[in-house]
Amino acid sequence: MEQIEQEINIRELIYTIVEKKWLVIAVFLISVIPAILISLAMPHIYELSMFLEPTFIDMTDQGQYLKIDAPQNIRAKIQENTYNLKVIHALNLDPDQAKLRFDVSQPAGSNLVKISMREKADNVEMGIKILHALYAELLNDYKGIIDYKKGIFEKQIIATSAFIAAKKKSITMFEQELISLKNRENALDIDLKDAKAGFRKILENSDRLISEKDNLSTSNVGDNFFELYSNVLVSNIQCIDSLNSHLAETGKEKIKTLAAMVDLDEEINDLQLQMEEARFKKESIQNIKLLQEPEVSLLPVGPNKTKNVAIAGGAGLIFGIFLVFFMKFWEGYKRK
Q1: Separation CA 209–CA 305 (nearest Å)
Q2: pTM of the model
Q3: Phi, psi angle pair for 110, to nearest 5°
Q4: Distance between alpha carbon 314 and the CA centroid of its chain, in Å?
Q5: 216 near 226, Cβ under 8 Å?
Q6: How many Cα atoms sit within 13 Å of 69 on the Cβ side?
Q7: Tell me: the pLDDT tens digits for 256-292?
Q8: Which of 26, 32, 94, 180 is least crowded, fewest Cβ atoms below 10 Å from its Cβ?
Q9: Is 260 exposed, middle or buried (0-12, 13-18, 19+ CB in 10 A)?
Q10: Of 2.40.160, 1.10.3470, 3.10.150, 1.10.287, which CATH number belongs to 151-284?
């Protein structure tokens, strides 16, 4: 097998290209002109995009907020076409013709999720509907988690409300008991005043009885009278002491009842704070937020006419030069 060696220096290459320049130009134009015409005929492509934000639905014991889902997980679900078929059915699209392709990204340093797609100018409205349908499917997907979390706080609110109602009922009972104690205290106070008044009257008559002691002491009647008088004094003193004791006990019961009512009020306040906190947490639980409604780019993002023409021109130029070299080689081969 014979090997043919051919040495071509740079000057010869340049001379060959210049010599066949019209061929190179012709091939270049044949490549560029159709590319220009095709690019001009191609419809404009617009980008439709929306921004989502995963919300916080809970807090750990360490005070860290928990999101409904990580942005990376949401992006992975969309990129794996998890919702495509649901969107197609929701919009009554033809599954064989509808080819949904979503571009999902996460802006650097944020928890946002950007979802975008590209549509022709005459299909922009349908593209917006598709993005809305995709967002609706995302909401439905996470609705179970939202309902579960809200249900936990709702049960807590109901239980706390029942505790508050029971404690308020206890306060009502204590209020009735307090009224009863006040009535008893008033009655004892009246009895004590009457007992003290009677005792003062007995003491006021003691001087007169002593002055008549000599006349009364001559008979058994006098001894019995003074014995009875002494018993009345002792009985009154005992009665006053008993009433004072009952008043003191009633006062203690009042203080004890009031203290219990104050404790119940404080417990009710604490429970109400817990219930308000549970309500706040329940209302704070929200599904994925739509931070930016689907919108269309102001300028078309495709087709890239300059790029298309440049690629066609470059390919035509390379092919033209290759064709020149091939023709040169073929002529040399034929001569040999």
Answers
A1: 135
A2: 0.68
A3: -140, 170
A4: 55
A5: yes
A6: 20
A7: 999 999 999 999 999 999 999 999 889 989 999 999 9
A8: 94
A9: middle
A10: 1.10.287
